[in-house]
Design goal:
Distance between the termini: 58 Å
Strand order of the largest sheet: 4-3-2-1-8
Largest sheet: 5 strands, antiparallel
Order of helices and strands: EEEEHEHHEEEH
Radius of gyration: 23 Å
Number of helices: 4
Structural class: alpha+beta
Helix content: 25-40%
Shape: globular
């Protein structure tokens, strides 16, 4: 997964640690960016909470911490149109979390951005028509 991807109408830029919805940008904390990067590496896959505790937060998987849950809560306020009904940062009940709807931000090819219709009549460029 690239460091820039779309979640619905949000552009997530992990290189700049920000989420952009239209002209408005919100900063991501380093931990929020780490969690998104980890989940985006396997979009749509359920990731156990214990794995997130160990691999993202550096805690023992059995640690009694709500760090993952608090970080997810903050991220949902930044990412989701309706944080109470998340469409992208989804809980997998009794398991962990997953990131749904990840679409890589791929710039349009140069040819597509410079597409120009060819005129049907070559005389538009100052050349004489073949008939006269």
């Amino acid at each position: 997964m690239t460091a820039r991807f779309w979640l619905g109408t949000c552009l997530v830029d992990l290189d700049r640690n920000e989420v952009r919805r239209g002209p408005e940008a919100q900063r991501l904390t380093a931990r929020e960016a780490d969690l998104l990067r980890f989940l985006a590496a396997s979009p749509g896959a359920d990731v156990p909470r214990t794995t997130l505790m160990r691999d993202v937060f550096g805690y023992h998987p059995d640690a009694n911490s709500r760090a993952v849950d608090f970080t997810v809560h903050r991220l949902r306020r930044k990412l989701e149109a309706d944080p109470g009904r998340p469409a992208h940062l989804v809980s997998s009940v009794g398991h962990g979390y997953r990131l749904d709807g990840c679409v890589p931000d791929v710039p349009a090819p140069l040819e597509a951005t410079r597409a120009v219709e060819r005129p049907a009549d070559p005389t538009l460029f100052g050349r004489a028509s073949p008939s006269g």
